[in-house]
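[agent] plan:
  1. take the single chain provided in the ticket
  2. run structure prediction with default settings
  3. attach structure tokens to the ticket
  4. add a short note for the reviewer (M.T.)
[agent] executing step 1
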Amino acid sequence: MSPGLCKLGLVLPAADHARMTLLAQRSGQGRGALQMIYEAAFEALLAALAAGDAVLFPAVRGPKIRVTLRLPIDLCLRIRAAAARLTLKLTDFACAAVGRALEGA
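[agent] step 2 finished; step 3 output follows
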């Protein structure tokens, strides 16, 4: 693993991860595109929370898969801090970030 990166283990709906993967492929960015798509999703959610926007954290039902991402350490720390502050599980936080990203796609 590269210095400055941390592993973040997520459990996401399989269909949402498949759509994120498709977005990454369509971006034409090549290697690392999926990581960038997820980074952008988390950054957008963190920005919305910082701006005081209303954010829904819906219950997520159905089959899920384990997704492991390597993200910048500072982003991982901010994600964990925001989830703790909101008393959310990491999965709920990640599903909200991905859901918001897919709505705008």
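[agent] step 4 note for reviewer: The chain has four helices and two strands.
[agent] ticket updated
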